[in-house]
Amino acid sequence: MNPIHIQSVTRAGLAQSAADALEAIDNAQALSMCSLVGFDGFVDSIIHVVDKRHSMAHDDYERIHTIPQYAARCGAAANRSANIELVVVDTRFGGNGPLLSNALGSLGSPVTYVGAVSTEDDWNKVDPIYQPFVDLCDQVIPLCPPGRTDALEFDDGKIMLGKPESVQRVTWKRIKEVVGLKKLIEIIDGVSLISVVNWTLVGGVPGIWEGLCDDVFPHLSKDRDRRVFIDLSDPAKRTDADIVIAMQLIQRLQKFMPVTLGLNLAESGRIAGVIGVEVYDDEHNRTLASMVPEAASIIREKLGLECVVIHQHTGAGGADRSGESHWFAGPYTRKPRISTGAGDHFGGGFSFAQMAGLPLGESLAAACGVAGAYVRDAASPSRTRLIEFLRDLPVPEIN
Length: 399
What we know:
Order of helices and strands: EHHEEEHEHEHEEEHHEHEHEHHEEEHHH
Number of domains: 1
Largest sheet: 10 strands, mixed
CATH architecture: 3-Layer(aba) Sandwich
Number of helices: 14
CATH topology: UDP-N-acetylmuramoyl-L-alanine:D-glutamate ligase
Radius of gyration: 21 Å
Mean pLDDT: 94
CATH class: Alpha Beta
Number of strands: 15
Strand order of the largest sheet: 1-15-14-13-12-11-10-2-6-7
Oligomer: single chain
């Protein structure tokens, strides 16, 4: 394995350097950083779980603030019963692909989105709930109606209760029927990024990866740099055998163009176990800042990918083919306005930075900045907002 070099540049230094690089991007460069993203789609109900009610007025309650408190409430119902009230505080478009695309579009990357975003009664029309997303994209091609998610939000994370039956209609055959293979090759020939996300919930993703390798990538022109970004989206419920096949297909994608695999902390441990490497050793009380970049390097080396990046709520680490590794302490806040979609915004920010040619450390800083601004604003940041956020990066709050 190549030696890893965990850089010692300061957090503030990386943030300022990333802000400088992002500020130097002119409109022409941004418009050349085109993306194709797909293929899921969900409608998310953002939900608070009620702890105590003061009255029956809609918002006159105290919420359960942490996942352990919620787990304790559920656990206490064993062999009994429980009535747990859920308050829907917002309903918005979701799905890994649309949220990642929203981040890219807000930063200035022209996005073509293909996915499960249509109305129930007319699959050729985009569901109106996606209109803010549509306004940011160059083109949105609906394949079928979206799935549904109940997102229980807590101060220390979220529990996503997904209903993905509808997105199982997303297949390589369906994509070719709606878009057309010739048109799809034309679209991908003009992009710098191809992102296929939510392998966990969309059963058609392996077939899509195979279709891209068989029917599209061999026919692309050679005069443009392209890269692939993959987000598995919490494979906890998928079998080891499924994960092995997924990793083999991702390795096949790497043969055509550089692949970045984005993982969260739990996902990285699961993937490492399946591919037979050890990444997290708690015996010596090591910090995430030292363990995560090393884990990314080990996983990347084992799979032979261009880059592996691992994020969690307090920061992110990554490693790339050059042997460079970094950790960036993110602007963690104990009171996010929203947490659903934070990981997708990290992926969008990281992908945008990669397309812009930022080095690994600055790409991590930009990605953490996008996610940090998003959870505070409950909106995808523009490039101007991101630059301002990085220049005055909040100090991480105590977890």
